[in-house]
Amino acid sequence: MKITVYLGSSFGNDPIYKENIIELGHWLAKQKHQLIYGGSKDGLMGVLADTVLADGGEVYGIIPLDFKKREKAHLHLTELTLVADMDERKRLLMENGDVFLAFPGGPGTLEEIIQAFSWARIGLHHKPCIFLNINGYYNPLKEFFDQMVATGFLNQSDCDKAIFVNDLQELSAFMVAYRKEK
Question: What parts of the sequence cross the membrane (predicted)?
Answer without folding.
Answer: none
